[in-house]
Amino acid sequence: MAFQLPTLAFPMNALAPAMSEETLQYHYGKHHQTYLTNLNTAIQGTPFERMSLEEIVLASDGINQGVFNNAAQAWNHAFFWMCLSPKGGKKPQGELLGKIEERWGSFEEFRKQFTAAAAGNFGSGWTWLVLTPQKTLEIVNTSNAGSQLASDNTPLMVVDVWEHAYYIDYRNSRPNYLNALFDHLIDWEFVAKNYYNAK
């Protein structure tokens, strides 16, 4: 069965003005769709055709770069949309907040270091909050289609820093985009759920 765009948990205009409907039309409706279209074409008639998206990412990593790039980009984007909410922003609560404060001293310092890592992530890629096998929180940058799904870490949150994620709304100002995500859109309830499931 061909992979299809996941249904968003919010209307296309619900993230505005931090993320405009036009950005979602292009980013979700065109870029994300293109990865899925290319993936469906690439796996036709291969063993990958019978696998889940997660299984394809893991099985193709280092084996078939074309399949991996499209599968990982499709998975990364689906995860990114789940990290956003029109009721997002502010800061996490409870145990996750305590874990962040334990690791970085304060939520504000974590935000500062995360946004610095994301703003400085050279070229195109993704910036992640992960839980390591040692049960510590870390900020990780990946390039291009690099995915923390294909690692020993558990991804808790991701931010897309490909230019198509922010150029319509923020032109070349990646820091302004990152600040808007933290101020208005990051769904800390979803991030906390990922943490509780993995700890």
From TrEMBL:
Catalyzed reaction equations: 2 superoxide + 2 H(+) = H2O2 + O2
Pfam families listed in its UniProt record: Sod_Fe_C, Sod_Fe_N
Protein name (Swiss-Prot/TrEMBL): Superoxide dismutase
Keyword vocabulary terms for this entry: Metal-binding, Oxidoreductase
PANTHER family: SUPEROXIDE DISMUTASE (PTHR42769), SUPEROXIDE DISMUTASE [FE] 2, CHLOROPLASTIC (PTHR42769:SF3)
EC number in record: 1.15.1.1
PROSITE patterns for the chain: SOD_MN (PS00088)
Domain of life of the native organism: Bacteria
InterPro entries: Mn/Fe_SOD (IPR001189), Mn/Fe_SOD_BS (IPR019833), Mn/Fe_SOD_C (IPR019832), Mn/Fe_SOD_N (IPR019831), Mn/Fe_SOD_N_sf (IPR036324), SOD_C_sf (IPR036314)
Family, similarity comment: Belongs to the iron/manganese superoxide dismutase family.
The protein's enzyme class: oxidoreductase
Function: Destroys radicals which are normally produced within the cells and which are toxic to biological systems.
Domain Manganese/iron superoxide dismutase N-terminal: 3-85
